[in-house]
Design brief:
The complex is a heterodimer.
Chain A: H1 25-34, E1 39-45, H2 51-61, E2 64-72, H3 95-99, E3 106-111, H4 114-128, H5 158-164, E4 169-171, H6 178-185, H7 190-200, E5 205-210, H8 215-231, E6 235-238, H9 249-259, H10 263-266, H11 281-287, H12 292-304, H13 327-343, H14 349-365, H15 368-383, E7 389-391, H16 398-403, E8 431-436, H17 439-452, E9 457-465, H18 468-478, H19 483-491, H20 505-511, H21 519-531, E10 535-547, E11 558-560, E12 567-572, H22 573-578, E13 583-589, H23 590-606, H24 620-627, H25 640-649, H26 654-663, H27 666-670, H28 674-681, H29 695-698, H30 708-719, H31 723-732, H32 739-755, H33 760-774, H34 780-799, H35 801-811, H36 819-828, E14 832-834, E15 846-851, E16 870-875, H37 886-898, H38 904-911, H39 915-923, H40 934-943, H41 969-980, H42 988-998, H43 1004-1009, E17 1015-1026, E18 1035-1041, E19 1044-1050, H44 1052-1057, H45 1059-1064, E20 1067-1077, E21 1080-1084, E22 1087-1090, E23 1101-1103
Parallel strand pairs in A: 1-2, 4-5, 5-6, 8-13, 9-12, 14-16, 17-23, 19-21
Antiparallel strand pairs in A: 2-3, 3-4, 7-8, 9-10, 10-13, 11-12, 15-16, 17-18, 17-20, 18-19, 20-21, 20-22
Helix pairs in contact in A: 1-2, 4-5, 13-14, 13-15, 18-19, 18-21, 23-34, 23-35, 24-34, 26-34, 30-31, 32-33, 34-35, 35-36, 39-40
Chain B: E1 4-8, H1 12-20, E2 29-32, E3 41-44, H2 46-50, H3 59-65, E4 70-73, H4 76-91, E5 97-99, E6 104-108, H5 113-116, H6 119-132, E7 138-142, H7 145-153, E8 157-159, H8 165-171, H9 182-195, H10 200-204, H11 208-215, H12 217-227, E9 243-253, H13 256-276, E10 280-290, E11 295-306, H14 309-322, E12 329-339, H15 355-370, E13 377-380, E14 388-392, E15 419-433, E16 436-442, E17 445-460, E18 489-490, H16 499-502, E19 510-514, E20 519-524, H17 529-533, E21 539-542, E22 548-550, E23 555-557, H18 590-593, E24 598-607, E25 612-618, E26 623-630
Parallel strand pairs in B: 2-4, 7-8
Antiparallel strand pairs in B: 1-6, 1-7, 2-3, 5-6, 9-12, 10-11, 10-12, 13-14, 14-18, 15-16, 15-26, 16-17, 17-24, 19-20, 20-21, 22-23, 24-25, 25-26
Helix pairs in contact in B: 1-4, 4-6, 11-12, 13-14, 14-15
The chains are: A alpha/beta, B alpha+beta.
Chain lengths: 1104, 631
């Protein structure tokens, strides 16, 4: 007799089946738990994408998550239909094809044990990494790069099943199964049944019957049941769940997106009803009351499927050790060797105690191998002169510092090791390594691939979900909005980080003339938020790598990344962390690349050897520069908000810089801690502590908690938490807040505080500050790591500005500012920047000796001028000439070393630019060395024959003075912007200054002289627009003129009233009262106008 | 010295489009190669320019500036028609005419003073005549073609008196020069801008040979034009006496009314041109480009040559009504055979109105009575709702009707069974006992349920809502129609209940037309009595392998019933699904109820009156309906 509780759902798919499922794994698990299922299986299409999230959610709800997958099968030779685009969008014009796609056949498998799970991972990996062009030869005779199946269109063959199918339990029913498709076609499926039975083995091959109240499906069930009887194949029941709840609307929308059609046109491409939701076991048992065996089979299968992702058998690879060493002993040896380098031969007691504590913890947790592997990567970087620095909580570790993984002295800075690693948590540590962005980072990544094998290492994935704009676009199309309407609706969402009620979709629609009462528009507003959490596709994480002891594809399925030579796993970094898979982040940092470029330049041109690890930490010049907020180009402290804080902060020590990096973050801002800290620092407010026991913890930050470590220490001090418990507290209050977890922690915290004699009021205060801060806090160690780079960049800017700016210009894009702003800033720092010159410029910007005018302005007679006659100048690189190809630039560089160019024609003949490139070089003034004005150069360049087939090819026309009119100064500046995106001559506003002055418009420098509260007008080129989420809708605009930078503050109302102008105008005129607080100058702009000059300027950096 | 006038229509592709679609004149317009948002605007109307839209912007950028911007794809046909019309306007003034680039026509006006007055008056007359053929033009008069052209490009009427040519040219900005094809022109423009050349005078001062070695032949031409040295004589080209207008449509026109609207405007323009030339229409040749890439050509005889647009349109429309094109129309060409005006004479061999046209007129009258969307032929719609149909143009197929859905072959081993659809579905009362239907009672029906299959639940069209409830984003439709009111035509609205009675016909008269995996809809076989009786789908039947069909006894014997039953574990229940709680309508959550669409449970009931019926339970309205009767 079948009990109503006998049914277990074996077949379900989540939104990780990408547009074929409409529920998140978490919702599915929660619903299953609500319905009282003891276990449930998830099998997404061609992958294990949703399995970790499902596993974690199921674990938290107390049910067992079985692992499965729905595999697309394709093998012409064995009667399987080859995929014909049914899984991908068919956006062709053929309406019939869109509405009736050819579905592909699929087999559903479950992994009952670890061995079969390993087979499943390998089989999916095999299908995803199937090389389609094996043996193909490229045009140049070399083997062609491998070509993999398009994303989302992999398939397995019967041969794959032969190799990897053993142990898996196969459910071969449902309308998409190959058996069903053969029956529909009228073919005899018995041979295929035989083969599948042999592949999966006796007792592992089932035909599952599904009942969705569909007549056609019921007929199929009869045939499948008859087939099962005749072949003696057991049957099972299943429901092919696509959505957890019975609401089908989201699934229909996703189906339409997948098929590239509208709801109106989709017709029978949508499921006939909404019966594919997770039903109570009793309802399923009732539905299959005529087939009790099929229901009982589900429980039998579920009981066999004991495997969960908690039992994957993942192991981190072992580090190859020298003879006689263990991981722990070797780590100890390396640590103490490094410690002696860091702290000198005599290591003090405190340091030694800390190292011992850490080494013991590492040994207890068995993590020595992990540290050795990270050390190995760092060593590789060092040996290959790749700058590398650990960031994040790893910087809390003295061992990491000793090993050279991080650059922050955790002992000296008294950083809390437990924030990084603790026995209680028993988690893998997370070490992030910053590398110079670009080729060197790739070199490190390829080293890891090479060292751990093609299938032993992979990048983590990044789950891409719908953004509001793309959601509006996709849902709009599905609802049948015209493309123009969809485009318009989506564009309305181009808003800044900050959003208020006026940025709400319905309000935006209303204000833009859309009838929000129209049913379709309301549907849009209803469906868009629902689709936002749905995964759209899988991307590649920016730097996370995972490695495994043997084969990574035993643990998780791999697939090709879009970048050649890269492989990604099907899980994102959170999933890896949840499942205990160790990730090492190899992150690219533009500033590191810039520093790395600057150091050799300084060595070569200034004869100074810079060691970033040993920079003087108390350079007053650097701190004065920071105090002046003269930080354009300086890492982490160059933003408008940082610049506004620096003069109030007045940093004098490295720790001040650590605070500066951390303080302009959402945590302190939202927690309203910035002003108290600055007020206390400037003596406007008394330093006080909620409880005397907090003084040692908060003393360095003047009683204001700014770092996560402080939060941890507070919990440890006032509530008696251990380090691990404190970290647990931080996590409980972090982004993934759970009320239950928070309440539990809150109780423990209060009990601890009461035990230590803290009054209820004080406890309330502390709990409040912890709760508000934990969400957005910044770890002190991370701030310290960043502060090191910030200090190094500030040091170079102050002492070696030429090399610093040259490197920044070469590493662009990075930071906040456009090269045109960086060039002007360099010039304001006395750096000579000289324009592109084909006889001197390399592809990148370089430094060169530049003769100074003699005598120098202000120089007295008789002074020794020999040392001052030459200076360093930045020679702009050819890469800055718009439209010039890199190979042409490099060729010019090579040809010049052979023999210097002597004319435009000579350059054209040897560097072989095309006509446009030659014109662009002429227009940029790059031929000035030949004595040509820009117009002369354009005239002569136009006369050069560039058609290689022409009779005149190679003929070098005589240079001549052109009959063209000369350029005005303004024209030259505009030509600079047009040809190179920047100017090394006068800034654009300098040409307008006279007119502006006549209208009472002040320059940025003049604003500094104006009085606080006076109504002023200023104008400049807009270089930054920002509307941060923490600024309550205020817009901040940064203007640049020939004297410097000025800031505008625009209230939300004025922003909305002048939205179009403020978002678009390249040169802005603004008026309003001047605000000067703590040396920070800004205009609270009230009126605006655009200044038009009829030329294109560099784009501003807008934060949308 | 000769005097040349130049007629110039600025933004000619825009003008040609507006001429073809006069309604566009009211809105800002842009012309592009396609209407994709990333596509650049090639030309824009004055109205669009005034709003800040510029050629070269992408459509998306332009729309951000002006949401009202209409974008049309560039139409060669419209431009050719407009160019011919320009030539007609010029020819009506002077016999010596040379058509130039699109939007430009030169004419020799020497000696026309006695007919039209001075040069100012001639220019005004030309502008008037061009306006009659649907465009706004400017006219320049000068000693040679290029200067006249440049003068015309300055707008309005501009007469360059002899001897003042150089002075005029020096003043002209470079923008007025036609620099050539778009790509090349852009390059030339950039070069000249970088050279600092802003006026024609700057260009005139350069050495033509030096410019030639840098900018090629076009450079030399430009310098000569700038110097006023271009003296190419007027090359009169014989004009074909062809009066044709062609319109390319952005979308396939399937509607005669819309076609009539389009053709009326075309005929208006053609007649204007004919009248300008003093001719009348002696015949109309119609050419249609159809969506399936075929062309449809036909000739309409005009027995009595006439310039009466209304009469011509009637003739043309009748020709279409008689034999409408069998695919949407994507381009229309009307060519008029011109005749010299003469008294009308009837064709003794042609009847004034052929009989088929009278028939068409009758159909047209029916359409007028019932509405144009209510007359035609029903075809199944792509929907899970069985009665969902759409009306298509009445066009009896010449050959056999196609079989099931494209790409779907006939299923093997499937017997066919015929069901007569009951339209509208007949509401009945179903009495249930222990949750299962036991008795059906309705008009002319009262019988016990002997056996049944089902329920088969069909639902959908949730996105179709009827009224809005403010605030919560959900809409309520407490009185959703029983058959799920949708935009798709419901046959029950258009077919008289008695009509299906006429379709009681033997199955041989029917052929399968359409259906899902196991569902067939039936059409009468062409030429059969059924077809004569009722040219619309009769209904749908769902049959499975092994189902026995006895149409004469109107019975279905399902597999699994009686002998021959198959099953895995004993007998498969013919109606395995219990009636869900929704059967009572109470199971539907309020949220679900608030959405329109339909949710129905379908059953096949064998009643003890010997009939087998398809019955559905509308879960929203909690009502039962008989939907079909199996023959």
């Amino acid at each position: 007799m079948t009990s109503t509780a006998d049914y277990i759902e074996l077949r379900a798919r989540s939104a990780f089946s990408f547009l074929e499922g409409a529920t998140t794994p978490e919702d599915l698990a929660t619903r299953a738990a609500e319905l009282g299922y003891p276990a449930i299986a998830l099998g997404d299409r061609d992958g294990l994408y949703g399995a970790p999230r499902f596993h974690m959610a199921a674990k938290s709800t107390g049910i067992r998550a079985m692992v499965g997958a729905e595999l697309t099968v394709a093998d012409d030779a064995h009667g399987f239909a080859r995929p014909q685009g049914g899984t991908s969008k068919t956006r062709g014009s053929d309406r019939a094809a869109r509405s009736a796609p050819v579905p592909t056949a699929r087999l559903y498998v479950l992994a009952p044990d670890r061995a079969s799970y390993r087979n499943l991972c390998r089989m999916i990996t095999e299908s995803k990494l199937r090389v389609l062009n094996e043996g193909a030869i490229a045009c140049d005779g070399t083997p062609a790069p491998p070509e993999y199946p398009p994303k989302g269109e992999s398939w397995i063959t019967l041969d794959d099943l032969e190799r990897y199918g053993r142990g898996l339990i196969c459910l071969a029913g449902g309308v998409m199964s190959p058996l069903a498709r053969m029956l529909v076609r009228g073919d005899d499926p018995r041979a295929l049944c035989d083969r599948l039975g042999t592949i999966f083995g006796c007792g592992n091959f089932y035909i599952d019957l599904q009942r969705h109240l569909d007549a056609g499906e019921e007929r199929l069930n009869r045939r499948l049941a008859a087939l099962a009887t005749s072949m003696q194949i057991p049957v099972a029941a299943s429901n092919d769940v696509c959505h957890a709840e019975s609401d089908r609307r989201l699934l229909d929308v996703l189906t339409c997106i997948r098929l590239g059609t509208t709801l109106e046109e989709a017709g029978r491409a949508l499921w006939v009803n909404r019966e594919r939701h997770l039903k109570p076991a009793s309802a399923m048992a009732e539905l299959f009351r005529d087939l009790p065996g099929a229901v009982a089979a589900t429980r039998a299968i579920a009981e066999r499927c004991e495997f969960t992702l908690g039992d994957m058998g993942y192991r981190f690879p072992d580090y190859p050790l020298p003879p006689g060493e263990t991981h722990d002993s070797y780590l100890r040896t390396l640590t103490y060797a490094g410690a002696r380098e860091r702290w000198g031969a005599k290591i003090d007691g405190r340091t030694r105690a800390q190292l011992e504590h850490e080494l013991q913890t590492i040994a207890k947790l068995g993590l020595a191998g992990y540290f050795l592997i990270v050390w190995d990567i760092v060593q590789f970087c060092r040996e290959n002169r790749i700058m590398v620095q650990g960031r994040g909580s790893a910087a809390n570790s003295a061992v990491c510092y000793a090993l050279g993984i991080t650059a922050v002295d955790a002992v000296r800075m008294e950083l809390l090791f437990e924030r990084f690693l603790s026995e209680e948590r028993g988690e893998w540590p997370d070490i992030d390594l910053d590398l110079p962005s670009g080729g060197q980072r790739e070199q490190a990544i390829q080293y890891v691939y090479k060292r751990y094998g093609e299938r032993g290492a992979a990048m983590t994935a990044n789950v891409i979900t719908y953004r509001t704009k793309s959601a509006v676009r996709e849902v709009g199309k599905v609802l049948g909005f015209a493309p123009e309407q969809v485009d318009r609706l989506a564009k309305l969402y181009r808003v800044y980080e900050f959003r208020d009620e006026r940025d709400d979709l319905v309000t935006l629609l209303k204000h833009n003339g859309v009838d929000v009462g129209a049913p379709q528009v309301r549907l849009l507003a209803d469906m868009v938020p629902r689709i936002l959490s749905i995964p759209r596709h899988l991307g590649q994480h920016s730097g996370g790598m995972v490695i495994a002891a043997h084969r990574l594809d035993d643990i998780v399925a791999l697939e090709p990344a879009s970048m050649p030579g890269r492989v990604v796993i099907q899980w994102d970094k959170e999933d890896c962390a949840d499942l205990g898979i160790i990730k090492i982040d190899l992150l690219g940092l533009g500033m590191l690349a810039a520093l790395e470029q600057a150091i050799p330049m300084i060595r070569a041109h200034e004869g100074v050897e810079i060691d970033l690890a040993h920079l003087p930490a108390d350079d007053t010049g650097v701190y004065e520069m920071l105090t002046r907020a003269d930080t354009a180009g300086v890492f982490q402290v160059e933003s408008r908000a940082q610049m506004a804080t620096l003069p109030r902060m007045k940093p004098r020590t490295f720790y001040d810089l650590v605070v500066e990096v951390a303080i302009i973050r959402p945590g302190p801002i939202v927690g309203k801690l910035v002003h108290p800290y600055l007020n206390r620092r400037n003596g406007r407010e008394r330093v006080s502590y909620a409880h005397p026991s907090l003084e040692p913890i908060l003393k360095r930050t003047l009683g204001v908690p700014l770092f996560q470590e402080q939060l941890l220490r507070i919990a440890m001090t006032v509530a008696g938490f251990t380090g691990g418990e404190a970290e647990e507290l931080r996590r409980a209050m972090g982004f993934k807040r759970s009320m239950e977890r928070m309440e539990k922690i809150d109780r423990r915290l209060r009990t601890g505080m009461a035990r230590n004699g803290l009054s209820a009021e004080v406890a309330d205060d502390i709990v409040r500050s912890i709760t508000s801060f934990a969400l957005y806090g910044f770890p002190e160690s991370h701030a310290a790591s960043f502060a090191l780079i910030a200090y190094a960049s500030a040091y170079l800017k102050h002492h070696h500005p030429a090399a610093f700016f040259a490197a920044l210009l070469n590493c662009y894009p990075l930071g906040f500012y456009h090269p045109s702003t960086l060039v002007k800033d360099a010039q304001r720092h006395g750096v000579v920047v000289v324009p592109v010159d084909v006889t001197r410029s390399a592809w990148e910007c370089i430094l060169e000796e530049y003769p100074l005018p003699h005598p120098l302005p202000g120089q007295g007679e008789g002074e020794d001028t020999r040392q001052l006659t030459r200076s360093l100048a930045i020679r702009m690189g050819l890469k800055y000439v718009s439209g010039l190809r890199e190979d042409v630039g490099l060729r010019a560089e090579r040809e010049r070393t052979r023999r210097q160019f002597d004319s435009i024609a000579d350059f054209a003949a040897r560097a072989t630019p095309n006509r446009r490139e030659l014109d662009a070089l002429s227009y940029a003034g790059a031929f000035a060395a030949f004595g040509h004005t820009r117009r002369d150069a354009l005239w002569n360049a136009a006369a050069v024959e560039r058609d290689p087939g022409s009779l005149l090819a190679g003929a070098q026309p005589r240079s001549q003075t052109s009959p063209l009119p000369g350029m005005t100064a303004l024209e030259e500046t505009l030509a600079d912007y047009s040809a190179t995106g920047l100017t090394v001559g006068p800034q654009l506003m300098a040409h307008l200054r006279e007119q502006l002055r006549g209208r009472g418009i002040l320059s940025a420098a003049e604003l500094n002289e104006a009085k606080h509260g006076s109504i002023v007008k200023t104008a400049g080129v807009v270089i930054v627009r920002q509307r941060p989420g923490t600024a309550k809708g205020f817009l901040f605009v940064t203007l640049e003129d020939e004297t410097g930078i000025s800031n505008l503050i625009v209230t939300p109302d004025l922003f909305h009233a002048n939205r179009a102008l403020l978002q678009r105008a390249p040169i802005l005129l603004a008026a309003g009262p001047l605000q000067k607080v703590d040396g920070v100058t800004a205009i609270r702009a009230r009126r605006f106008a655009e200044i038009k000059i009829g030329a294109e300027l560099p784009q501003s950096h807008d934060f949308h | 010295m000769g005097r040349i006038a130049c007629i110039f229509v600025s933004d000619f592709p825009v003008a040609a489009q507006i001429r073809a679609n006069p309604a566009l004149d009211e809105s800002p317009l842009g012309i592009a190669q396609s209407t994709a948002p990333h596509c650049e605007l090639l030309f824009i109307s004055q109205r669009a320019r005034a709003m800040g839209v510029r050629a070269g912007m992408t459509i998306a950028q332009a729309r951000a500036i002006s949401s009202e911007l209409a974008v049309m794809v560039r139409s060669d046909a419209a431009e050719q028609s407009a160019q011919n019309a320009l030539a007609d306007a010029a020819t009506s003034v002077s016999p010596v005419v040379e058509p130039g680039a699109p939007g430009v026509v030169w004419l020799d006006i020497a000696g026309l003073g006695r007919v039209f007055g001075n040069e100012e008056e001639i220019a005004s007359e030309l502008i008037r005549r061009v306006r009659r053929v649907g465009m706004e033009a400017s006219v320049g008069v000068a000693a040679n073609k290029e200067i006249a052209h440049l003068a015309a490009r300055c707008g309005g009427r501009r007469i360059i008196a002899p001897g003042l040519e150089r002075e005029f040219l020096d003043w002209l900005p470079l923008d007025v020069l036609d620099l050539g094809t778009p790509g090349r022109a852009q390059e030339l423009e950039l070069t000249l801008e970088r050279w600092g050349i802003r006026r024609l005078g700057d260009l005139a001062r350069l050495d033509p040979a030096a410019v030639g070695s840098r900018l090629g032949r076009r450079g030399v031409e430009l310098v000569r034009i700038a110097r006023g040295d271009e003296f190419a004589p007027l090359a009169q080209r014989p004009q074909a006496e062809t009066f044709a207008e062609e319109t390319e449509l952005d979308y396939g026109v399937e509607n005669l009314e819309a076609l009539g609207f389009i053709m009326r405007a075309m005929l208006d323009r053609l007649i204007e041109r004919l009248e300008m030339r003093g001719l009348v229409a002696g015949g109309v040749v119609l050419g249609l480009a159809l969506a399936d890439h075929r062309r449809d050509a036909r000739r309409v005889v005009v027995a009595a040559p006439s310039n009466d647009v209304r009469a011509l349109l009637t003739l043309v429309m009748l020709a279409f009504e008689n034999a409408p094109p069998d695919a949407p129309i994507e381009a229309v060409r009307i060519e008029i055979e011109p005749r010299a005006p003469r008294p009308a004479q009837a064709d003794m061999f042609l009847a004034p109105m052929p009989a088929p046209q009278r028939l068409e007129a009758t159909i047209a009258r029916l359409a007028a009575l019932a509405g144009p969307d209510s007359v035609g032929m029903l075809t199944p719609a792509n929907s899970h709702r069985p009665e969902a149909v759409r009306i298509e143009r009445f066009a009896p197929a010449a050959g056999p009707l196609p079989n099931p859905l494209p790409g779907q072959g006939e299923e093997k081993n499937v017997a066919r069974l015929v069901m007569r659809a009951v339209r509208p579905a007949m509401e009945v009362e179903v009495l249930c006992g222990r949750g299962e239907p036991e008795f059906v009672r309705g008009r002319n029906l009262g019988a016990r349920v002997v056996t049944m299959a089902g329920p088969w639940r069909r639902e959908g069209e949730w996105w179709k809502r009827t009224s809005a409830a403010p605030g919560d984003g959900h809409l309520t439709s407490p009185t959703a129609p029983a058959n799920g009111g949708t935009s798709q035509r419901d046959s029950s609205l258009h077919i008289q209940p008695t009509a299906w009675n006429a379709a009681r016909c033997v199955p041989d008269d029917l052929v399968a037309l359409n259906g899902g995996a196991r569902e067939y809809r039936f059409f009468p076989r062409p030429g059969s009595d059924a077809e004569r009786a009722m040219p619309f789908p009769l209904g749908e039947i769902v049959v499975g392998e092994g189902d026995a069909v006895d149409s004469r006894a109107a019975k279905i014997r399902r597999s699994g019933q009686g002998e021959g039953a198959q099953g895995t574990e004993g007998r498969i229940d013919p109606h395995p699904h219990p009636l869900p709680s929704e059967c009572t309508g109470e199971g539907l959550a309020g949220r679900e109820r608030s959405w329109a669409g339909f949710v129905r449970d379908y059953y096949e009931f064998a009643l003890d009156d010997g009939g087998v019926y398809r019955v559905f339970h509308d879960l929203r309205a909690d009502k039962w309906f008989v939907d079909g009767v199996y023959d």
